[in-house]
């Protein structure tokens, strides 16, 4: 079946459900439906471990009876099952408490234009090819160095899906998307030391994934470089976050400026709009309409139109991130962030990774973070880490079993430089981030 026909059929289902909701007493309603086909193959020690096929979908319906909300979902798309789901949602709404902030997004915010963002690049879900790819990836890793002695496996995933959203303001829109990934993790041994590391690649287009050989060798190289890791003494030193991890720093920023954290008064960045949070040279832009972007969309999960935004302007907090509900709680309007962020482009200082090491001089180059010791309410930051000790801009030896700690306010303000070589495999695209000073707890 052609993808256009499938989308049209799903839109018809969504339209039918919305009409049912109104006929059963709802004053407003919204529905979303997704379908996914996929394959996941994993191997270990160059033998097939798992082959999984996915072919599922479901519909969720939320109805509003005045200022009362009820929700239901179903994977059964028969008329009877859809009707029952709507009835249950309406029944739930009648018994819930009134909430003045509930309801659909304001009609004037709803998307009316749906450009083709080229998110769908289908490729046949070929099991034999997937198996061959995972085994080749592991083989490349295992053959890279004699110190690679074991494997935690390689995996290949391919997903082809579509999403449709509609509500009683008139939107009923959807799009297909694709996503492919390949990863590998191996274990290395040297004397009494064992280490592991990984590598991965992800893209909307299968033919733009890094090769099996590249992924395998990158995983092995990262693992071998960690062998012989030492502990270090407690100190206050500069810390360079590798670009693969640096997005997590901005992920904490996302949490702190999200409307839900704000109206609950549970963010260290309360009442910070327009205030200096980062260095003056740093800008962050959101670009939701990047073609083939991993976080691209013309509308959010509530149908609100997504558009280009400045998130950080010359280091200042330029905007908070609102859903419809959080915006109403805070007496403002949604800016299209129900469901998350859309392609953040973090500015840089033009440094190469080698330049960043020189800029740091002596300090810690972090390549792995562990634990969840981050408090968005207070800004306290404390996580386990591993990486490399650097002196005079040159990597000296790997280190492990350490903790890095600081305060996110200070960490953000004291970013010295950001690399120009960016990790583009997620919703935040950034280079490695150099922070002026953090507490390192070791021996």
UniProtKB/TrEMBL annotation:
- Output the GO biological process annotations, alphabetical, semicolon-separated: proteolysis
To which protein family does this belong? Answer: Belongs to the peptidase U62 family.
Drop me one GO molecular function for this one. Answer: metallopeptidase activity
The entry's keywords: Hydrolase, Metalloprotease, Protease
Every copy of the Metalloprotease TldD/E N-terminal domain together lies at 29-93
Keyword Protease tagged:
yes
In this chain the Metalloprotease TldD/E central domain maps to: 120-227
Q: What is the lineage of its organism?
A: Bacteria, Pseudomonadati, Pseudomonadota, Gammaproteobacteria, Alteromonadales
- Keyword Disulfide bond among record annotations: no
Recorded source organism is Alteromonas hispanica
Q: What is this protein called?
A: Metalloprotease PmbA
PANTHER family attached here?
A: METALLOPROTEASE PMBA (PTHR43421:SF1)
Pfam families, per database record: PmbA_TldD_1st (PF01523), PmbA_TldD_2nd (PF19290), PmbA_TldD_3rd (PF19289)
